[in-house]
Amino acid sequence: MTKILIVILMQILLSSAPIKISPYLSGEEQEAILQSETQRYQEISEAIVRVAQNTKQLESNTEFDIIKKIALLSAIAVTESGLNKDIQLGKRRGDWGRSVCLMQMNIGKGKTPEGWTAEDLVTDLDKCLTTGLRAAKQSLGGCSNLKNYIDRLGGYTTGKCLDNEPESRKKMNLMFYYYSKLLYQMKKQK
């Protein structure tokens, strides 16, 4: 199941955040960038699947729960960072320099509850994703008083539980889309 999930996820990520290559580069340079970025997307896909399979956050680790975590992690990473390489490597940061890694974890100069620094998150993709999954779980639980489920990532996106929160809705709608694509493709493989 793992290899199939990685292939399917990589296709989803490439369609959501396509690799960008300047047309002004030589064909050789374009090919080198394409190979490098394809490898990076492969590594991102592998890390997302690995973290989803190895964490008990959100629910249990049934096949459906793992796919749900993969979809959630992917939706957050795509909407927070666009899978941008400079963001992944910590060369660019959000929130005036306080947010790092593909999940844009706002830790400033501090540490995550797991004890990880910003440097840890940009050098270890599994740590970035694990921290992001924990923060998403906290938001989903902490905002459970909201009537609409798609608003419950507000704690992640704004730090507040708000009705009609647009960033939460964008992430949750994309998560549901990814979840349905992953389930459909997995069913086709059986």
List the keywords.
single chain; 190 residues; mainly alpha; two-stranded antiparallel sheet; 8 helices; globular
Polypeptide structure, described:
With 190 residues, the chain is mainly alpha-helical. The chain has one domain (2-17, 25-189). The protein has 8 helices and 2 strands. The chain has a two-stranded antiparallel ribbon with strand order 1-2. The radius of gyration is 17 Å and the shape is globular. 36% of the residues are buried.
DSSP, total strands: 2
Radius of gyration: 17 Å
Taken together, the total number of domains comes to: 1
The average pLDDT score comes to 93
Instruction: Flag low-confidence runs.
Output: none
Separation, N- and C-terminal Cα atoms: 10 Å
Shape: globular
How many helical stretches? 8
Summarize the structure.
Helix 1 (2-16) packs across helix 2, helix 1 (2-16) crosses helix 8 and helix 3 (63-81) crosses helix 8. This protein has 190 residues and is mainly alpha-helical.
In terms of topology, how is this protein built?
Layout: H1 2-16, H2 27-54, H3 63-81, H4 85-88, E1 99-100, E2 105-106, H5 118-123, H6 125-142, H7 154-157, H8 166-189
Antiparallel strand pairs: 1-2
